[in-house]
């Protein structure tokens, strides 16, 4: 009795089982491994701002989570170079980023993973971060804040890292002050956070229109 199922779940296995047994299309609205609708919205935001996306440099500073798993995949397909900075105690998903590396060879883009934010931010056109404490990790907040010391995105960090002077900043929300300083988050010149949030609506509508 439905044209489509939009599911926001904990485990990616739940999405896979829904897709296996549902006669209607299943859209992953978020799981522990992927966040595809967010990536569609993010790429729409980037395309709208820059027009030509191939060859842009995107820097991710933060956790190795579902958002960057999909965003790196989407960027690699479009020829956007990705530099990822995560703490030493945080590991990216080897299978996903192995696939991303393969995609970069096809598109001519590049992928770099480092533990130093300034390395990832050098020459970045697009700067992205996300919450350090994902859903279900609330009990780990104190430990995570220690892990991510020095990873807050600030104007000083961006300048000292050699980020492009015309960089844009993005965040999928909700945002916490420890992740990004106010002057970056609310910057009228650099922040695309609120257009990005609006594009989530259009991304979801487009996915439903295409699938259902």
UniProtKB/TrEMBL annotation:
One GO MF term attached to the UniProt entry: ornithine carbamoyltransferase activity
Recorded metabolic or biological pathway in which this protein acts = Amino-acid biosynthesis; L-arginine biosynthesis; L-arginine from L-ornithine and carbamoyl phosphate: step 1/3
**EC annotation from Swiss-Prot or TrEMBL:** 2.1.3.3
Q: Where is the Aspartate/ornithine carbamoyltransferase Asp/Orn-binding domain?
A: 54-211
The record's InterPro entries line, in alphabetical order, gives: Asp/Orn_carbamoyltranf_P-bd, Asp/Orn_carbamoylTrfase, Asp/Orn_carbamoylTrfase_sf, Asp_carbamoyltransf_Asp/Orn-bd, Orn/put_carbamltrans
A cellular-component GO term for this protein: mitochondrion
Annotated keywords: Amino-acid biosynthesis, Arginine biosynthesis, Transferase
Example GO biological process term?
A: citrulline biosynthetic process
Q: What Pfam families does the annotation carry?
A: OTCace, OTCace_N
Coiled coil segments of this chain? none
The Aspartate/ornithine carbamoyltransferase carbamoyl-P binding domain covers 1-48
The record's similarity note reads: Belongs to the aspartate/ornithine carbamoyltransferase superfamily. OTCase family.
List the PANTHER family.
ORNITHINE CARBAMOYLTRANSFERASE, MITOCHONDRIAL, ORNITHINE TRANSCARBAMYLASE, MITOCHONDRIAL
The protein's name is ornithine carbamoyltransferase
Recorded source organism is Tortispora caseinolytica NRRL Y-17796
